[in-house]
Amino acid sequence: MQVGANGQPTNCELVDKFRKNYVNSKLCEVLMDHHTFEPARDDENAPVPGVYRSSLSYMDLREKF
Description:
With about 60 residues, the protein is an alpha+beta fold. It has one domain (about 1-65). About 30% of the residues lie in helices and about 15% in strands. The protein has two helices and five strands. A hairpin with a 5-residue loop joins strand 1 (about 1-5) and strand 2. The model has no long low-confidence stretch (mean pLDDT about 90).
């Protein structure tokens, strides 16, 4: 996920996609609409655009619900 200097997501892309396109688009939609991030910082500690990466295990999610 790309994150702007203000901490707001600007782009979402899944590397390993789920079989259903609806799940892929809905997951990105939820992340883009409901999450903010601490912005990356440059050498002068000013906020700059950055990238957030994470992993998600479908099997782990199934066990929780």
